[in-house]
Specification:
The protein is mainly alpha-helical. The chain contains 10 helices and no strands. 68% of the residues lie in helices and 0% in strands. The protein starts with 11 loop residues before the first helix and ends in a 6-residue tail after the last helix. It holds the Pfam family TetR_N.
Length: 199
């Protein structure tokens, strides 16, 4: 029974944080279709209390989106991608090394897959964000480094990006073996991508 849930006394900010953490774990396991009644039970709160902190399931999903996706995009990535004192290969390898460390988690991959299967707008928002904030500037930097020899299209960038992300999908969705250190795989993918630049 919901009324029999024993709760620890927490400050509102701490309770809200606890609910978000529980929601991330819960939605990673069952997807956004999971009922909030079950989520509340997992979080150790009543459903009524959950709705005191989040007025709707959509608001809670938004908090999960902010935490799992937008919250993992580091502000310095764009500056480092645009730092032309560093060779373009080194910039791409550094970025994808940090990016994969940030997103190659059970929660990130599972929620992203569940949301995609549900046709959720959160995925589209995230991909649009990545395209505008990271991939478009990356394209511009590669084009500048090529000095007129090559100008990759956005589809080329998505192919590179998607191929690297697939390592995380293999690990966390398909449970297939993936090297513990994906750095050499990333470097090989970047080298193949930059081959039109020549030596």
């Amino acid at each position: 029974m919901e009324g029999s849930i024993t709760r620890r006394r927490l400050e509102p900010a701490a309770r809200r944080e606890e609910i978000i953490r529980a929601a991330v774990a819960y939605f990673a396991e069952v997807g956004f279709g999971g009922p909030t009644r079950d989520l509340a039970r997992r979080a150790g709160v009543t459903q009524a209390l959950l709705y005191k902190y989040f007025a709707s399931k959509a608001e809670l999903r938004e908090a999960v989106f902010e935490r799992v996706y937008l919250g993992r995009i580091a502000p310095h990535w764009l500056d480092e991608l645009r730092d032309r004192t560093v060779p373009i290969r080194a910039r791409l390898c550094r970025f994808y090394g940090e990016y994969t460390r940030a997103i190659f988690t059970y929660e990130w991959m599972r929620i992203f897959m569940w949301a995609g299967l549900d046709g959720d707008a959160l995925n589209r928002r995230y991909l649009e964000h990545v395209s505008a904030l990271l991939l478009a500037p990356m394209r511009d930097e590669i084009t500048a480094a090529a000095e007129g020899r090559w100008a990759p299209g956005m589809e080329d960038l998505w192919n590179l990006h998607g191929g690297i992300i697939y390592l995380g999908i293999r690990r966390h969705i398909y449970h297939l073996p993936v090297p513990e250190d994906v750095t050499p795989v990333i470097e090989a993918a970047v080298d193949r991508f930059l081959a039109p630049l020549g030596a």
